Amino acid sequence: MARLPAPPSRLGLVVVQPLRGKRCARCRRGPLSLLVLEEGVPRCLVCADLGHLVFLPRGDTALTRRSREESVLSAVVVRFNRRKSRYERQGLLVEEAALARAEARC
Q1: 24-37 in b/e burial notation, b at 16+ Cβ within 10 A?
Q2: Is 102 helix (H, G, I), strand (E, B) or coil?
Q3: I want to staple 43 with a disulfide (CB 3.0 to 4.6 A). Which of 11, 47, 73, 94 is the partner?
């Protein structure tokens, strides 16, 4: 299996939206819409213990900031842009209860 280019690690916990369908290296589930790179191999969110998180798309700055503050565990979702040759942020994965509390605060 070819190694994937590593997303930037300065963002903390990073989840990747792959451009092509990838399969989980542990459970062979796939094609995956979101994956985590552990030691250069793709893992599904369930195998990476992130299956309970919900996706919050980019766009609403206040909701993003508040949901990240409320959530104990969060991850940045990125996708590789071939034209610009870099990873671009697509949103966040946050806990569902934290998202509900953040929406109530907005």
Answers
A1: bbeeeeeebebbbb
A2: helix
A3: 47
